[in-house]
């Protein structure tokens, strides 16, 4: 298994040209060559024509984030050449028709390969992949296998595409000799690993957590969760509904959870805005609901297809009144899977709403992570079948930990009374000041257990050293990539944002002589949480709010400034 | 905190009585609906544990305090999605929504046509008093034009909505109107609505004794569809009846058969989501997609 | 950022052309609506400054980038309340809403019956492609039952909504259907819709070239109401036509006269709210209430 | 003008018995006797039958809040006696039928007075007022005049009620002699003062600020704003609409503001939840909208008719993405008037959303305040009529202060393009990272002016001393009442909660050796803002979350604890 240590590839073209599919095929092909891969895409909110690209980085070690440079570009149009030329280290490949008149572009017989095989012209992207793989002397058999898997639902299409790829691969032999690029290594896929996007991971984590009911209104970048679960509904026995709005979605989820189903919805900031009223309802009725909020750049409609971490404070404080909630922010697909699983378990354990906060970069980006383990969901304090208590069943019984045994409607001997108005233990409305205080206290009593969970799992530290870089969510990737070779830097990732793991975070920051914060927003929302909860003013804050994830380079440069200072 | 004065003489189907004194105003039309519902549930031979009442916010929403059953007193306007979630999670439950004309036709109107076309097997009973009762008497979408209310001191400027017509146009498979002043008839309608498989829409004229007392007028104008030989299978006849203005027809306007929404999820129904104990799930088959 | 490919041959009413290249997919039905609208505006002799386009979120929402006029590209589903606010603030503006079948019939459906019964003098043009276009092809309330989409891989389980029937049932005073493939006819419909005083509802069949290309089928089934002597004053006839399923009628289904909503505010119209420069207000008369 | 310095009166009875009206009549009557008055009520969310009361405190000096005790109670039912007996200092009055069998209750011939005058039995409350006034030897002429004003729309009803009141007043002569209570003083109403509730004040402030369009969906405790403006619409030329929902309301307001109208809506927390998406739209489109959020106790439906200050963090952070907004929190009706006025001016000056945060106690409570001055609204950077710029009009032109000249649709030569998606200066959508960053920066550039406003008007200090009690909104009243006679205490009221007036507040806290925070919530939201913005951990926090406003006694006791400590 010799061959290059790293390889970065970008495919670009107009929307509708199959850019993402090619990128995904490239990622999997590289993965099957034995590389860790990471893929990320960028596209405007346009169905056809706007420029799109997908970038895949492969390395023999873990890959967190993309740098600014790429080794090879497959340009499906001239614009791709114009936009990305500046960042290319090794080669730009385009069809002869595209390359014509462009300097420094390898004119490849891509359409020719397509025609020779008798394929439809959209297959040109697979020709491109074949050609590039040829230049780097990869294993075309693996490429063909990936194509067959990716197009598995259309066997003939798969075959034609595979043939196109092989033909172009063969055409590349000559150019490969001339260019003499450092070849790919050909090994076995990293053991026990998968290549997965954040959306799929969170959906599958929820499945592992017992998900049985999913309702969601489409919204970029969360829609793929709906698509995946809709597809898996038969295999896993799910009810999957696409209702008329986010308001309907969250209320259906609340109804389903009340009726005993592990239920979830997903959306982005705009849809979450519409869910805020029902978020409070879930809290007040102590109904376990899970909401995935995949952030995109706002405010308002904003940049629908771009990333951001600017909804943190919003989800922490959304809805009138006060109540405990969990906000979990995974940073990679493995964590997303765990968050999906934990979200359902925590929601049912504490009977509180749980928000899983992701973002477009995590949701639609691919990373190579460990295949997640099979997990055991636990039921929580749920009563099914028959209630045999001495006293009449009380939905909101005051208990030491604030959690009341939750009967499911249909349980013999128990009537389940949920109430969005303040109520007594029996669920009947009350305005008695003592009852009101007692019920608020009851709900907040859950907080001590919740804080323990947060302090337990809510912070991760990578490396060590006197300079602490605190970050959260998908930004951890650029930070980890940037600090990989730095000495004296510890990266501290906060995964539980509510309740805030103050104690644990303080511990992780012990001995740090400087604390920096990096996050993809303008005002520094995690930074504000450090001030609020730790009374700690960070020594530096790096924000970004142009819709693009951080590059390791910009993070590195910024951190380096503090090391010299 | 029940300091209300009990109104009207009520014979309850005790099994469904929480024993709490309703706090509605004396003479409120909600009493009639409460009694009719309890009787209908008793007549259907249901157990309180098998029934879920979802109630909106408004005077009507207090139903959940007075009916012995499972109840969910939801936020304003969301009775239908809540009820839909419950029914899909556990189709063996009998799910009944109680909403108001503000709750169902103002803030919540966006859900009604969808519940209707989906044919979710839920009964929606709208306590239609043509006024926002609980917020002390503003105009709702069914308040007659010109009427003076707290929000329309110079007369309601809006043409009222015709909820029955709307329900028919939305594809509801059971459309009826009742009158809280005719409890026996209403009981019968509720029984039929619950028995109907699919979405049942029942608008009930429920005079508000305090802000819009129209008992006398309604009594004068009301008549029963069944007394005049109405064909409940004819959409056209139903529309015509829904457009009547001088007299007020009550009874079943329209009834038809279509598969209820849950039949789209046979793969998820044994057991249904609400009755599953979460278990470890084998995802190995799925992981192969990600290699 | 306009990297779209221009589709179809288009003769524009230049005054209303921003000169930007639409980024819709080649063959998209939105092109036809764009052209018909520009021509209609030109024909009505309007100036761009007098026109406000309110557009929703979806492929249709891009209209606001291509029509030279005042524009408000609002959030998903809120075209009607936005347009209502604009019209009431300044009735001298011609206010046209462009919405999608997702925008208007899914998330925004709660506003439609109210705009209709209020008879707000606004034209609503729904780009009805029977699919969520911009979010890459999920089912909407008008997607035919059984159709496979990204959100319904086993076929759409829901009965579609009948928007024309719903608009009629909501009391809309102008109800029409157009087809983006028949630009001349659509232009005429838009002219009539804008001229109509009160709420004008225009559902336009707008095939989505990428996710639901039904041009051929529509062309085969479409026919013009006016060719078959339809009486636009008859609600009954309009309903019957809206229920037709084999053939697809286009044209004006229904038209009637009712006072537009703004007539309820004569006291606020000289000048209207939108044209007032804020001035010091004498409240001394009011203070006497508080002593 | 001799007579008693203070007098506290409570009227209680079942919902539907005219308790509030009697309370209001009592308040005005006492006001016209020359007292400062403060009135507050409590009632469940029930139309008939639930227990209600209204309390009126009158004094020859400013009155901020109610204590726990009352001098006289008018009980319209037995329950009132049972509930309030414990707090009465001087006398409980009830009709003979109610008083029967109850000890220590003056059985008054109230129904007898009603019958003798031939009035309907609902008039019994006016009889009660007459009787109580007789016991305290007030001026019945002033009571009659108030009754005539309050019932002004129904002249005959007014006359009958006035006669009932006088009859009962006369009946009281004998008992008055026996009880020999300290009589009321009879003077002239405090000069230049009015007695007004917070809702009316904020509505009238908005009117003064040029309000011409109001749309709102009813919601307790904000609905009275709708009722008042609907009534005043003809006199002041307003468009007042009650739309189908809060979502419709805020979007209508946004449309109207875009079209040039000064527009506002009002709601409570649940309705505000539904407005959060459009709040972001207003920010992104830079449309000046004003939202009054009258808090009630949550979460969710909560306690619809009770007070709370638990929505502060929510309104500060509501909606996805980041944008500057104003959050103004008046503490009394005079400040509410000013906030209503300022809200419209600030919204139009900065083209940002403004939230006026009140609560049930302020909204429905009455205070004696200065008659607000006539004010001059200013137009802001608005272009009307014709645009004569050199270059084509650009709605989002980048300017040094971040505010772009705002043309109104209909302006000749200008096309006004509002866009909820990110956009360039011309309003056309853009995803270019530089444009995106520039537009975010533009919007945030407004913040420096906004912070100046906040530092200018956003903090008020009462008294001085080393112990600082920081509070906000209507809770200032109990704090002012409690600290009235304390030495060494300064009360610091924060009126602008966003942007946070850090600088000014730091200044006002200078020299304080201890900082306490009092607010009506559980988690200490203002306290969290002190931590976040001043890195200041308060030395004590007093919260309350049972739906009731603080009493001066409980605040006093708590503060005293710190003085001894
Ligand atoms: C989101 C939201 N908006 C407004 C309210 C205030 N609210 C409570 S009840 C009600 C009106 C109820 O009217 P209706 O549904 O006709 O019920 P009724 O009281 O007449 O039975 C309103 C507007 C609320 N609770 N929540
Ligand atoms: C509150 C909210 N929810 C969801 C979305 C995501 N979204 C954007 S466009 C769209 C669908 C639009 O469908 P349609 O109105 O039919 O427009 P088309 O693209 O077909 O023209 C959705 C769901 C959004 N922008 N805002
Ligand atoms: S206000 Fe009307 S609807 Fe409400 S309880 Fe009283 S009578 Fe009934
Ligand atoms: S996706 Fe469909 S509706 Fe959208 S631009 Fe393409 S063809 Fe038109
Ligand atoms: Mg009602
Ligand atoms: Mg569509």
Describe this protein's structure.
The complex is a heterotetramer, with 2 copies of chain A (565 residues) and 2 copies of chain B (291 residues). Chain A has 565 residues and is α/β, with parallel strands linked by helices. Chain A contains 19 helices and 23 strands. The longest helix of chain A has 25 residues, at 155-179. Chain A is globular and about 85 Å long. The model of chain A has no long low-confidence stretch (mean pLDDT 97). Chain B is of the alpha/beta class. In chain B, strands 2-1-3-4-6-5-8-7 form an 8-stranded mixed sheet, sandwiched between helices. Chain B has one domain (3-266): 3-Layer(aba) Sandwich (Rossmann fold), CATH 3.40.50.970. Chains C and D meet through β2, α3 and α10 of C and α1, β7, α8, α9 and α10 of D.
SSE blueprint and pairings:
The complex is a heterotetramer, with 2 copies of chain A (565 residues) and 2 copies of chain B (291 residues).
Chain A: E1 6-14, H1 19-32, E2 36-42, E3 51-59, E4 70-75, H2 78-84, E5 88-95, H3 96-99, E6 106-108, H4 110-117, H5 124-135, H6 140-150, H7 155-179, E7 193-197, H8 198-208, E8 213-215, H9 223-236, E9 239-241, H10 246-258, E10 263-267, H11 269-285, E11 290-295, H12 312-317, E12 326-328, H13 333-350, E13 354-359, H14 360-364, E14 366-370, E15 382-383, E16 406-407, E17 417-419, H15 433-457, E18 459-463, E19 467-472, H16 475-483, E20 489-494, E21 496-498, H17 502-509, E22 514-519, H18 525-534, E23 540-543, H19 552-564
Helix pairs in contact in A: 1-6, 4-5, 4-7, 5-7, 6-7, 8-9, 8-13, 10-11, 16-19
Chain B: H1 30-43, E1 51-55, H2 63-66, E2 70-73, H3 79-89, E3 94-100, H4 101-107, H5 112-118, E4 123-128, H6 163-169, E5 174-179, H7 183-195, E6 200-205, H8 215-221, E7 222-224, H9 235-242, E8 248-255, H10 284-287
Parallel strand pairs in B: 1-2, 1-3, 3-4, 4-6, 5-6, 7-8
Antiparallel strand pairs in B: 5-8
Helix pairs in contact in B: 1-7
């Amino acid at each position: 298994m010799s061959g290059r240590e790293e390889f970065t590839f970008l495919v670009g073209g107009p929307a509708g040209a199959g850019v993402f599919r090619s990128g995904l095929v490239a990622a999997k092909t590289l993965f099957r060559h034995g590389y860790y891969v990471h893929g990320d895409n960028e596209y405007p909110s346009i169905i056809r024509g706007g420029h799109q690209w997908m970038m895949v980085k492969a390395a023999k070690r873990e890959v967190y984030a993309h740098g600014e440079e790429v080794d090879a570009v497959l340009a499906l149009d001239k614009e791709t050449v114009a936009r990305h030329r500046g960042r290319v280290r090794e080669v730009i490949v385009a069809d002869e028709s595209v390359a014509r008149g462009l300097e420094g572009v390898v004119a490849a017989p891509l359409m020719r390969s397509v025609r020779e095989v008798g394929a439809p012209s959209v297959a040109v992207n697979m020709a491109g992949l074949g050609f590039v793989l040829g230049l780097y002397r990869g294993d075309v058999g693996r490429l063909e296998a990936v194509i067959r898997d990716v197009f598995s639902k259309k066997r003939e299409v798969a075959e034609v595409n595979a043939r196109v790829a092989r033909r172009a691969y063969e055409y590349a032999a000559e150019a490969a000799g001339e260019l003499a690029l450092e070849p790919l290594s050909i090994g076995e896929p990293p053991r026990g690993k998968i290549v997965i996007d954040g959306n799929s991971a969170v959906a599958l984590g929820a499945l592992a957590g017992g998900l049985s009911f999913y309702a969601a209104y489409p919204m970029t970048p969360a829609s793929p969760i709906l698509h995946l679960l809709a597809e898996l509904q038969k295999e896993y026995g799910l009810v999957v509904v696409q209702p008329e709005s986010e308001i309907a979605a969250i209320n259906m989820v609340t109804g389903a959870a009340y009726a005993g189903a592990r239920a979830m919805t997903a959306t982005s900031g705009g849809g979450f805005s519409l869910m805020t009223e029902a978020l409070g309802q879930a809290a007040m009725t102590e109904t376990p609901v899970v909401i995935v909020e995949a952030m995109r750049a706002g405010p308002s409609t904003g940049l629908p297809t771009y990333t951001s971490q600017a909804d943190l404070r919003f989800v922490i404080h959304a809805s009138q009144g006060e109540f405990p909630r969990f906000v979990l922010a995974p940073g990679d697909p493995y964590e997303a899977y765990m968050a999906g699983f934990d979200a359902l378990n925590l929601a049912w354990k504490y009977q509180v709403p749980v928000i899983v906060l992701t973002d477009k970069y995590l949701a639609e980006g691919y990373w190579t992570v460990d295949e997640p383990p099979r997990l055991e969901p636990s039921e929580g304090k749920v009563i099914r079948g028959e209630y045999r208590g001495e006293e009449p069943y009380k939905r909101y019984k005051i208990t030491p930990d604030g959690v009341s045994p939750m009967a499911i409607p249909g349980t013999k001997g128990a009537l389940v009374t949920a109430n969005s108005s303040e109520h007594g233990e029996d669920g009947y409305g009350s305005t008695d000041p003592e009852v009101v205080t007692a019920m608020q206290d009851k709900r907040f009593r859950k907080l001590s257990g919740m804080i323990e969970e947060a302090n337990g799992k809510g912070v991760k530290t990578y490396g060590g050293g006197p300079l602490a870089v605190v970050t959260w969510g998908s930004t951890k990737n650029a930070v980890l990539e940037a600090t990989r070779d730095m000495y004296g830097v510890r990266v501290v990732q906060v995964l539980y944002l509510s309740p805030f793991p103050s104690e644990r975070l303080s511990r992780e920051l012990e001995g740090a002589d400087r604390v920096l914060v990096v996050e993809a927003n303008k005002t520094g929302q995690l930074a504000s949480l450090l001030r609020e909860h730790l009374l700690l003013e960070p020594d530096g804050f790096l924000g970004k709010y142009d819709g693009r994830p951080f590059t390791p380079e910009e993070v590195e440069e910024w951190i380096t400034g503090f090391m010299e200072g | 905190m029940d300091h209300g004065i009990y109104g009207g003489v009520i014979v309850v189907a005790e099994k469904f009585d929480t024993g709490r004194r309703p706090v509605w105003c004396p003479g409120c039309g909600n009493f009639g609906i409460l009694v009719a519902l309890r009787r209908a549930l008793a007549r259907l031979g249901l157990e309180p544990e098998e029934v879920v009442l979802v109630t909106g916010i408004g005077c009507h929403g207090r139903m959940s305090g007075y009916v012995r059953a499972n109840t969910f007193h939801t936020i304003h306007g969301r009775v239908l999605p809540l009820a839909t979630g419950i029914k899909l999670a556990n189709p063996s439950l009998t799910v009944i929504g109680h909403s108001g004309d503000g709750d169902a036709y103002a803030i919540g109107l966006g859900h009604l046509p969808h519940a209707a076309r989906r044919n979710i097997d839920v009964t929606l009973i709208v306590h239609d008093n043509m006024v926002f009762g609980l917020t002390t008497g503003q105009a709702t979408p069914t308040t007659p034009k010109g009427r003076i209310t707290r929000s329309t001191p110079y007369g309601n400027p809006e043409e009222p909505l015709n909820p029955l017509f709307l329900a028919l146009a939305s594809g509801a498979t059971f459309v009826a109107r009742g009158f809280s002043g005719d409890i026996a008839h209403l009981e019968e309608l509720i029984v039929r609505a619950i028995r109907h498989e699919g979405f049942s829409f029942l608008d009930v004229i429920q005079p508000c004794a305090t802000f819009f007392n129209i008992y006398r007028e309604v009594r004068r104008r009301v008549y029963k569809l069944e007394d005049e030989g109405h064909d409940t299978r004819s959409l056209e006849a139903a529309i015509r009846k829904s457009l009547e203005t001088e007299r007020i027809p009550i009874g079943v306007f329209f009834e038809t058969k279509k598969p209820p929404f849950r039949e789209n999820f046979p793969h998820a129904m044994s057991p249904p989501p609400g009755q599953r104990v979460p278990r470890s799930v084998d995802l190995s088959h799925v992981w192969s997609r990600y290699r």
